[in-house]
TrEMBL record:
It comes from Rhodopirellula bahusiensis. CDD domains: ASKHA_NBD_PanK-III. This is Type III pantothenate kinase. A monovalent cation. Ammonium or potassium. One of its GO terms (cellular component) is cytoplasm. It comes from the Bacteria.
Length: 295
């Protein structure tokens, strides 16, 4: 009896000692329209790994939503519940290793305060800076280039053959060039789809605001716009796609065209097929995960 009891206790101790903390790697790309939260659990033991080892999860939360900070905190809390809900739920806990890339300080700062408060004893938040970017930057003022542009370029360079043209279609559309050697050479910045149609609506009496996220923006109008909204969409899509085509030539032609950002889908479909545009919607967020240690 004694032997059976002691072996049972040993087994229980083994179970408890095998309850490791599940580390969740979190990348948060804070843009001027939305934050993109990408998470990937990197559990420390085989058991947790088997049950949790999935690809990265991505969530985009609009900054126009007054509850956007709460939604971000709740998103991570729900993830913790799901992960710690494993067979040894009472002992497993979840901690977060967070990297933030921000081009919008007014939004990033309150978010980080809220995350520290919500997960105070189990979170580590680091802002990604230019020092974290391995890619050589050959522009007049390297430290002034948006960190999202650099991270997007670096992630594209890791995944596709240079030279590269990296287009990030979001609040603005950035069109950047990466040389065959992997050097960031700068690029162009133009108003994004929504910024352009918002300007049309704000600057006129008769033109309506358009919401690109809900519109079926993957359908490039065939011919001339036959109504006001069709004419606006065609004009804005043609201006952005036309700019990209022209910049391809200005940057010297033969390059892999990688398109990322919330409006990547719209733009890829608006570009001619011969551009061979590669759609990578969440390049910046993926770059943040690339920066996080696996264990
Ligand atoms: N959750 C979302 N909130 C806002 N815009 C979204 C969302 N999902 C997709 N979109 C589309 O993506 C665009 C924003 O792209 P994004 O890359 O997030 O911008 P930024 O990085 O500049 O904040 C919007 O113009 C909209 O068309
Ligand atoms: C150009 C950007 C506004 C793009 O931001 P986004 O459209 O992703 O919100 C951002 O990269 C930025 O603030 N850049 C600083 C200036 C520069 O890159 O030269
Ligand atoms: K962006």
């Amino acid at each position: 009896m004694a032997d059976e009891q002691s072996s049972a206790n040993e087994q229980q101790l083994q179970d408890e000692s095998s309850c490791d903390v599940v580390m969740v790697r979190v990348g948060i790309d804070v843009g001027n329209t939305a934050i993109k939260v990408v998470t990937q659990s990197s559990p420390t033991d085989g058991k947790a790994k088997a049950s949790h080892d999935r690809g990265p999860l991505l969530r985009s939360i609009s900054l126009r939503d007054p509850e956007w900070i709460t939604k971000c905190v709740e998103h991570l809390r729900l993830l913790a519940e799901q992960l710690s809900g494993c067979e040894s739920s009472d002992c497993e806990s979840v901690c977060y290793d967070v990297r933030v890339a921000s081009v919008n300080r007014g939004s990033a700062e309150p978010l980080v305060v809220a995350l520290d408060e919500a997960f105070f004893n189990c979170i580590r938040v680091r802002f990604v800076t230019h020092e974290d970017v391995a890619m050589a930057i050959d522009v007049s003022f390297p430290e002034r280039v948006g960190i999202d542009r650099l991270l997007g370029a670096e992630a594209a360079f890791r995944r596709h053959e240079a030279p590269l043209i990296v287009v990030d279609a979001g609040t603005t559309v950035t069109v950047d060039f990466v040389s065959a050697e992997g050097i960031f050479r700068g690029g162009a910045i133009l108003p994004g789809l929504e910024m352009q149609t918002a300007a049309l609506a704000a600057g006129t009496d008769a033109l309506p605001k358009l919401d690109w996220a809900s519109h079926r923006c993957r359908e490039m109008p065939e011919g001339p716009g036959r109504d006001t909204v069709a004419a606006m969409r065609l004009g804005v899509l043609a201006s952005v796609a036309g700019a990209v085509e022209r910049l391809l030539r200005i940057y010297g032609g033969a390059a892999t065209l990688v398109v990322t950002g919330g409006d990547a889908g719209c733009l890829v479909d608006a570009l001619p097929a011969e551009c061979d545009a590669v759609e990578e919607p969440h390049l910046v967020a993926q770059a943040l995960l690339d920066l996080l240690p696996l264990e």
